[in-house]
Amino acid sequence: MAFRRRTKSYPLFSQEFVIHNHADIGFCLVLCVLIGLMFEVTAKTAFLFILPQYNVSVPTADGETVHYHYGPKDLVTVLFYIFITIILHAVVQEYILDKISKRLHLSKVKHSKFNESGQLVVFHLSSVIWCFYVVVTEGYLTNPRSLWEDYPHVYLPFQVKFFYLCQLAYWLHALPELYFQKVRKEEIPRQLQYICLYLVHIAGAYLFNLSRLGLVLLLLQYSTEFLFHTARLCYFADENNEKLFNAWAAAFAVTRLFILTLAVLAIGFGLARVENQAFDPEKGNFNTLLCRLCMLLLLCAAQAWLMWRFIHSQLRHWREHWSEQSAKRRVPAAPRLAARLIKRESGPGALAASPALSVQPGGLSAPGSVS
Q1: What is the pLDDT of residues 183-199, one digit of tens each?
Q2: The dihedral of CA 172, 230, 309, 205: what is its sign?
Q3: Rounded to two decimals, what is the model's pTM?
Q4: pLDDT at 55
């Protein structure tokens, strides 16, 4: 009897050592970056990746506080947090969404939308809580005039700048996620539209020193988006549950009104009354009539486009709903009509006189049907 010699298999060289998903890819990349930072570069360069840059001490009544402004080094910090976001995205997908979707037994189309909404629910919920905390602690809600007073808002608190860097990192990470998640070609244009829309508005508020107004507008927008994706998840769990969609529809229209009103109030009227009106990119001042008109035009066009898509989708949904209801009403009409004909006609040749019906051993049927 021949015996085979067992060879010792090391996990590193075996077939089990395979990169299965993009979580491992992101983890390997971040691990390589961290190892390089630890052994080959100084601690000062390591902080370039992790912490916001361009800190400045600003004198205040209580002393000095550290604020930040933007610069080219922010791209390095955003790049680092893109890798972090890819890892968090994969963790949510693998340990939460995949386990739930297996129990629901969704189709491929619904499974893709379920993953999209599940990721965005987590992101929007965390962003709403974080943004609300920043807005309250900085006093932007209690003092609405602070949204345009003392413009340009060049120097930002740590939590405001870090919030914007993380927002840019998330929406930039969504671009490679289209490949990692194997999104269908039909869904890619739609997702690219809202990804680019968020990137343009967030980067515009950050670069044009309208960070305070941008925070309030993001809080309104993210609250509505969180409600929508929560409603979609509930619909996938139970198709008869559409109550949250009605709440989202009302909140969506009200949010568009609030965003337009606040934008016109802050940019159209507030910045127009500020004394410092000049175009000086070095000082971060973009308070001119042309710049204000371009900002308002961009905001109004985006909100009008979103509202048009919303009305179009609602009309299509109502048409589908009424067509289903009319189809359900037409289905029981045929048996009732046949029963009435049977009752009206009497005698041996009654059923034979009707051209639409004939009698077979199995009962009533239309001409040419097989019993």
Answers
A1: 888 889 999 999 999 99
A2: negative
A3: 0.77
A4: 87
Residue type, 148: W
**Digit-coded pLDDT (tens) for 160-178:** 999 999 999 999 999 998 8
* H-helix or E-strand spanning residue 102: helix 98-104
Bridge partners, residue 363, by sequence: 360
In the chain, the N- to C-terminal Cα span, in Å, equals 69
Instruction: Name 124's Cβ contacts closer than 8 Å, sequence gap at least 6.
Output: 222, 223, 225, 226, 229
* Residue pointed to by tokens 């549950």: 241
Three-state SS at 194: helix
Local structure of 365: helix, strand or coil: strand
Between helix 43-50 and helix 74-92 the angle, nearest 10°, is: 60
Residue 105 confidence (pLDDT):
83
Q: Between 287 and 20, whose confidence is greater?
A: 287
| CA–CA distance, 296 with 325 (Å, rounded to integer) | 43
User: Tokens 């602690």 label which residue?
Assistant: 137
Q: Which two tokens stand for residue 363?
A: 């009962």
Percent of the chain with pLDDT over 70: 76
Among 154-163, 185-194, 216-225, 346-355, the range scoring the smallest mean pLDDT is 346-355
Assigned token pair, 164: 């914007």
Indicate whether 354 pLDDT > 80. no
With bands split at pLDDT 50, 70 and 90, how would you rate the model's confidence at 79?
very high
Torsion angle defined by CA atoms of residues 257, 297, 262 and 244, in that order, rounded to the nearest 10 degrees: 30
Cα distance between residue 243 and residue 357, in whole Å:
45
- Calpha distance 117→121 (Å, rounded): 6
Predicted confidence at residue 41, as pLDDT, reads: 53
Query: Can you list the pairs that 125-132 forms with residues at least 24 positions away whose Cβ atoms lie under 8 Å?
Result: 125/226, 127/167, 127/218, 127/222, 128/219, 128/222, 128/223, 128/226, 130/163, 131/163, 131/215, 131/218, 131/219, 131/222, 132/219
DSSP 219: H
Residue position matching structure tokens 């997908």: 93
User: DSSP assignment of 244-280, as one string?
Assistant: HHHHHHHHHHHHHHHHHHHHIIIIIIIGGG-S---EE
